[in-house]
């Protein structure tokens, strides 16, 4: 009985096993289904290949299209700029200095282009006082236009028109970066900012935080000759007779690389330390071969000049401090034009405090003298106080009050309001 | 002609002009010859940065997908629209590494940032400028500047909780690094929140 049961179970298992295998018809049907699926996949693959090919073609068309080339050019070309509108209300015992006016003092556009990782172009195009042209008050100026080449790691050379590496404001003067509506009178009248020349300049890092600039460029031309200028009479006729005294102030010597006389060059060297966050220490020396550009004036010729400038800029948390000293030592020949003009010097100190992230206040004491070599007391002292209010980190509203004591016992004071921006 | 040139250089303005021109060329030659290193604005590669900051450098980058909400907050931090769908990062436990770029004045600055800590308390561990391509403001790459970011945390409104002293004349480069530091802290927070 047991044997019969076992045989029965085995036969039943075999029968079930035989039933689990597909029949030939079923296998044929399965193969047909798989073949259809493979054919479908092949179709899909072909379709995908066609799509991929189309994509490659489209990408190639896009990358080689004029639009793509324009986009590539655009990524290497940069634009920026800044501007400042001022309202000046100045009162002076000397009526020519009094003013009550609005002025779009500066509107500037930067354009730069990268030729390669190591060669670039940079330019600064400026319109001062909104309107330029004959009889207009403003000027159109190209303050920078140079090619810069990183000739080795950490060192570069530029050739063209560039800003002289001197002072705090001359190279960095976007309105949100400094206090005061107008730039300080020391850097304006002594350095004189904004000051640019044409030539060649090497720059680079000597060690961590210590950098240098050294270059040769066009020099100043201070026209010391007095002249009789043509004026316009009541009927519009030219009238001769207005005499202009010879010039002697450093600021009058800027040639702005406009058909600039190149008889005598100038050489500038600066050393700068920025190794501690918030701190900048710098000193500049410049030698001018002859600020009369080889002309003979009042029977004498040759006015060599040397500039020494040193400054400190420090910002720690909300506290800020800027201080600058500059001195020109000119040949005595310049005294045939103006007594005491052989020394021109000035200094200022400017503490500031950031009350909030948006509001900062400052005070500044300035002293400068364009005839410091004379025995007379001729320096000008000026006190400024004011604030900057940042409605955006790059958009600032400014206000300041100033009071200037002149050598001639005349008073000059007033206030300025301004809005400045850069982008 | 040579005589005219000699007159021009030596008799007109003395020897100064020719001396200076000669010095320029000498200066150029000395630096060109003595510098064996080819010019490069890249100070450290991403693999080098990871090796320096992880015991076992992560071989594969992960992705933080930028949802509309993340994009909105990233845009607020950078003050410009954020493009792309994801941000790549490297991580090991609660430590993340971010390689981010931001334009200073004209060209992008590439910065590596290491953030460490759990969702309750995280901070910047290390900041390194990997590539700097602008001609001004290079001082931001000095350790004396980047060390200021160590242990800096994020405030609830996505600001840095400590003051970073700037660099005169390099304000835009400093702002770019501040934005990158804030963004790395924000992204780190988002990664922890998702895990």
Written account of the structure:
- The complex is a heterodimer of chains A (423) and B (195).
- Chain A has 423 residues and is an alpha+beta fold.
- Chain A is built from four helices and 20 strands.
- Chain A has a 16-stranded antiparallel barrel. A two-stranded antiparallel ribbon of chain A has the order 8-9. A two-stranded antiparallel ribbon of chain A has the order 12-13.
- In chain A, strand 14 (305-316) and strand 15 form a beta hairpin.
- Chain B has six helices and five strands.
- Helix content of chain B is 39%, strand content 22%.
- Chain B has helices at residues 2-12, 16-34, 46-53, 68-78, 143-146, 171-194; strands at 62-65, 86-92, 95-103, 108-118, 121-131.
- Chain B has a five-stranded antiparallel beta sheet with strand order 1-2-3-4-5, with helices on both faces.
- Chain B folds into two domains: 2-34, no CATH class; 46-194, no CATH class.
Task: List the SSEs and their pairings.
The complex is a heterodimer of chains A (423) and B (195).
Chain A: H1 2-20, H2 24-63, H3 66-76, E1 77-92, E2 99-114, E3 119-128, E4 139-152, E5 155-163, H4 185-189, E6 196-207, E7 210-218, E8 227-232, E9 238-244, E10 265-273, E11 279-288, E12 296-297, E13 300-301, E14 305-316, E15 319-330, E16 343-354, E17 359-369, E18 380-392, E19 395-405, E20 411-422
Antiparallel strand pairs in A: 1-2, 1-20, 2-3, 3-4, 4-5, 5-6, 6-7, 7-10, 8-9, 10-11, 11-14, 12-13, 14-15, 15-16, 16-17, 17-18, 18-19, 19-20
Chain B: H1 2-12, H2 16-34, H3 46-53, E1 62-65, H4 68-78, E2 86-92, E3 95-103, E4 108-118, E5 121-131, H5 143-146, H6 171-194
Antiparallel strand pairs in B: 1-2, 2-3, 3-4, 4-5
């Amino acid at each position: 009985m047991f044997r019969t049961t076992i045989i029965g179970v085995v036969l039943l298992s075999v029968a079930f096993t035989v039933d689990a295998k597909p029949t030939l018809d079923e296998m044929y049907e399965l193969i047909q289904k798989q073949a259809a699926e493979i054919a479908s996949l092949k179709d899909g693959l072909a379709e995908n290949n066609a799509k991929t090919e189309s994509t490659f073609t489209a990408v190639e068309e896009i990358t080689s299209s004029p639009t793509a080339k324009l986009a590539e050019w655009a990524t290497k070309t940069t634009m920026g700029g800044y501007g400042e509108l001022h309202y000046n209300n100045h009162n002076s015992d000397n009526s020519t200095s009094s003013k009550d006016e609005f002025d779009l003092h500066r509107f500037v556009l930067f354009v730069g282009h990268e030729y390669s990782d190591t060669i670039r172009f940079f330019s600064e195009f400026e319109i001062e006082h909104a309107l330029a042209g004959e009889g207009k008050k403003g000027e159109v100026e190209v303050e920078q236009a140079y090619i810069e080449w990183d000739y080795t790691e950490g060192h570069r050379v530029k050739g063209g028109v560039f800003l002289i590496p001197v002072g705090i404001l001359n190279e960095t003067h976007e309105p949100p970066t400094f206090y005061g509506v107008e730039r300080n009178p020391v850097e304006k009248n002594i350095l004189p900012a904004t000051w640019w020349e044409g030539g060649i300049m090497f720059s680079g890092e000597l060690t961590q935080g210590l950098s240098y600039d050294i270059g040769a460029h066009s020099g100043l031309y201070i026209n010391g000759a007095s002249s009789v200028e043509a004026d316009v009479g009541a009927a519009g006729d030219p009238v001769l007779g207005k005499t202009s005294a010879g010039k002697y102030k450093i600021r009058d010597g800027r040639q702005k690389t406009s058909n600039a006389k190149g008889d005598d060059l100038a050489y500038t060297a600066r050393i700068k330390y920025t190794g501690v966050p918030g701190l900048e220490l710098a000193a500049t020396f410049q030698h001018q071969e002859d600020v009369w550009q080889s002309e003979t004036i009042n029977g004498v010729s040759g006015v060599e000049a040397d500039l020494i400038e040193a400054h400190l800029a420090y910002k720690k948390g909300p506290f800020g401090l800027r201080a600058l000293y500059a001195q020109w030592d000119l040949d005595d020949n310049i005294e045939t034009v103006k007594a005491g003009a052989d020394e021109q010097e000035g200094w200022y100190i400017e503490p500031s405090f950031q009350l909030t992230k948006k509001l900062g206040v400052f005070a500044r004491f300035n002293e400068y003298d364009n005839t410091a070599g004379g025995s007379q007391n001729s320096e000008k002292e000026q006190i400024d106080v004011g604030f900057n209010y940042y409605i955006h980190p790059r958009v600032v509203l400014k206000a300041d009050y100033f009071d200037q004591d002149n050598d001639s016992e005349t008073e000059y004071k007033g206030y300025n309001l301004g809005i400045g921006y850069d982008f | 002609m040579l005589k005219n040139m000699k007159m021009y250089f030596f008799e007109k303005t003395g020897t100064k002009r020719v001396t200076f021109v000669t010095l320029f060329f000498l200066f150029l030659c000395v630096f060109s010859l003595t510098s064996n290193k080819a010019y490069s604005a890249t100070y450290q590669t991403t693999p080098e940065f990871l090796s320096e900051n992880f015991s076992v450098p992560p071989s594969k980058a992960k992705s933080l997908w930028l949802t509309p909400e993340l994009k909105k907050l990233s845009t607020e931090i950078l003050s410009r629209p954020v493009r792309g769908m994801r941000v790549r990062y490297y991580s090991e436990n609660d430590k993340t590494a971010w390689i981010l770029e931001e334009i200073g004045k004209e060209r992008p600055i590439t910065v590596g940032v290491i953030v460490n800590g759990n969702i309750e308390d995280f901070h910047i561990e290390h900041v390194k400028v990997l590539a700097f391509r602008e001609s001004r403001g290079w001082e931001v790459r000095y350790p004396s500047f980047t060390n200021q970011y160590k242990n800096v945390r994020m405030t609830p409104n996505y600001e840095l909780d400590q003051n970073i002293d700037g660099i005169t004349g390099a304000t835009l480069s400093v702002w770019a690094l501040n934005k990158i530091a804030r963004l790395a802290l924000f992204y780190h927070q988002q990664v922890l929140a998702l895990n």
